[in-house]
Specification:
mainly alpha; Arc Repressor Mutant, subunit A; 4 domains; about 60% helix; about 0% strand; elongated
Length: about 220
């Protein structure tokens, strides 16, 4: 299932209800039909930033390498949990911070990140290996199908991530193989595709026949000259 997007006014209402003692995380989650973790995060967000913390931003945030390191070190030194830090600094999702921590621990450079509109564009596709696609799908599934966050983390498009997860759901690892350049035989396709191919072949034959007729006409005209 795709990650649910809740309106900001609903998040604020639930956060206020918790802070005002109108219920626990669990009871409010059941009442409003949302996740326990969501209620906890929204309450933290409201305490830290007030209603302004729920204003939906247009596009992705920019993150400098210094900012990333600061956030990671706050978690690793015990200054706050992952949830504390993402609320405090307004990070887009848990998976983004968790990935920074993984890279930091592996001594992989945390680079500046500036959002690209291509994250949402179907044409903005970089080449990937099947191993990369498996890793990306696994990461996305482990982080509540956060397609946008996964696309940002791995520098691919939203549509690539969504398409790979959809294929994986339907047919597993084998569906992640790059099938571009592989032309299926007529025996490998369904009836509709076979009919489409046959129609194309007939059209080509008719076009070739028309071209032959025109050529013969020109030959006859030339012979009469």
């Amino acid at each position: 299932m795709q990650k649910v997007k809740y309106p900001d006014d609903l998040k604020i209402e639930i956060a206020k209800a918790y802070i005002n003692g109108e219920g626990s995380y669990d009871s409010l989650a059941r009442k409003y039909g949302v996740g326990h973790k969501s209620v906890e995060t929204w309450a933290r967000m409201f305490r830290e930033h007030g209603e302004g913390g729920f204003v939906t931003r247009s596009g992705n945030r920019s993150y400098s390498s210094e900012f990333k390191i600061q956030c990671v070190e706050e978690v690793l030194t015990g200054m706050g949990s992952v949830d504390d830090v993402i609320v405090k600094h307004g990070i887009s999702s848990r998976c983004v911070l968790i990935n920074w921590i993984k890279k930091y621990r592996a001594n992989i450079e945390l680079r500046d990140y500036y959002p690209r509109r291509e994250v949402y564009m179907a044409g903005a596709r970089r080449k990937t290996t099947i191993e990369e696609r498996r890793e990306i799908v696994k990461f996305c599934l482990e982080h509540d199908r956060d397609y946008k966050g996964t696309a940002s983390v791995y520098d691919v498009s939203y549509h690539q991530v969504y398409d790979w997860v959809r294929k994986y759901d339907a047919n597993g690892d084998v569906a992640l193989a790059d099938r571009r350049g592989h032309h299926k035989s007529d025996d490998e396709v369904d009836e509709l595709e076979r009919l489409r191919r046959e129609n194309q072949r007939l059209k080509r034959q008719l076009e070739e026949k028309d071209m032959l007729v025109e050529l013969l006409k020109k030959v006859k005209e030339f012979e009469r000259m």
